[in-house]
Structure formats: C-alpha cells, structure tokens
Amino acid sequence: MIDIHTHILPNVDDGSSDFDTSCKLLELEVENGVNKVICTPHQNYLNLNKELLIEKFNEFKNKINLDIELYLGSEIYYYKGFLNDLENGKLLTLNNSKYILIEFSTSQNTDIIDIVYSIRLKGYIPIIAHIERYSYLNNEDYLKIKKEGALIQINASSFNYSNTKKIIKYLLKNSLVDFVASDCHDLNRRSVDFFKIKKYIYKKYKEQYHHIFENDYLLK
Fold first, then answer.
1. Beta-carbon neighbour count of residue 31 at 10 Å?
2. Per-residue pLDDT tens over the stretch 143-190
C-alpha cells in the first residue's frame, strides 16, 4: 500500500517538526499497512528550494531503520506561473515522474478544470490533492476534472467529517477516486489512520480497493 501525500519529512514545512515525530508517523504508516510513502513537503512561489528538500530527504532516508520505502515529491500550491517553474526544474514531481500533486485554495473559486487542461498540455499528470475540501466544486466539476485527465486524491481523515464524507461517498460511488492518502502532519488531529475508510471501501466498493490502495505506478 502506498501513501502518496504526507508531511513526514521533518522541519521543512507545517508538518512534522522533528525526527522523532517523523519516525512515529512512519511507524503508524506500517501499522496501517503502508509500505511505500512519498514525502510531499509544501512548495509554492515562496519555497522553490528543491535542492534543499532533496538534501534533507536524503539525510532523513539514511537515518530511517524501518521496513518501509521512502520517496520524494512535493505538494504544490497553485500559483500563477507555476508551470514555468515546473518546466524549469524548480518544483518536485512525485518521485521525479510526470505526476504532480497540486492543491488549490479551499475557499477562493479557482478554475481547476482549465488548469488541469494546461498541465496536461505540458505533458504532466496532475493529482488533485484533497479534492473534497474545495467547497466551490460541484458534482459536475468532479466529472469534468477527471475527463480532462486529472487524478483525484482524497484524505482518509476527511471521512470523519459529515460535510466531506458526503462528497467522498459521491466520488466513490462514481468511481472517481484514484488515491486515499493520509496528508499527515502530526501525531494528533492530522495523523495516520486509514482503518475506517479502508473498511468502508472494501465493504462497499471492493472492486475499487486495489486501484485505490494497492497500486504503485507512480514509482515506476
């Protein structure tokens, strides 16, 4: 099982603040059945130091003594001109692939459909981070985003809240979910816990379970 969206890399963003916290989060990943983790620290127009993130990731990876595979990417917050920065090598894709994890404002109406189209024209495949959190999207928007060639990621923790749980159920019912991720930041409210949503998907949508949890094509 792969977790494609995490803030486990310590002391680089608003995620894990120290090495011990990161180790405990990785232990929770293993307990949840995860054996591959992509570290995705935040990147935006104010944080383009890709080389520093690579250096910190390699240092962290070399210290870890757990039965888990670690990879590097980033969660890119959409900003005007980000595609130029991406093409100029300033932003991290997932495991140096054509896949990018991208997030948007949760409150400011953003034309995600057109942005996906622009990204696909450049040869990249966008994965929309925690799509259930964008309150301005409707059911038709989700379908159009998928039609334009984006992949959809939801947060496991969003299944615990009634407003986002309703959206997740719609997305699953219509086979629109490609990844469930932890988006973990800490050991408290934003930790690692896949158990509830895995149980729900296995019971209700067993045919989707492998596609959502047990593929690792991002790493090939």
1. 12
2. 999 999 999 999 999 999 999 999 999 999 999 999 999 999 999 989
Q: What are phi and psi of 7, to 5 degrees?
A: -120, 55
* Tokens describing residue 75: 């969660």
Residues 6+ apart with CB under 8 A from 203: none
pTM above 0.85, yes or no: yes
Question: Would you kindly state where each structural domain of the chain is located, as residue ranges?
Answer: 2-219
Q: What are phi and psi of 75, to 5 degrees?
A: -105, 110
The strand ranges marked E within the chain are 2-6, 36-39, 42-43, 69-72, 75-77, 99-103, 125-128, 151-155, 179-181
- Which numeric CATH code is attached to 2-219? 3.20.20.140
Locus of tokens 């990731």:
57
Q: Phi and psi at residue 210, in whole multiples of 5°?
A: -65, -45
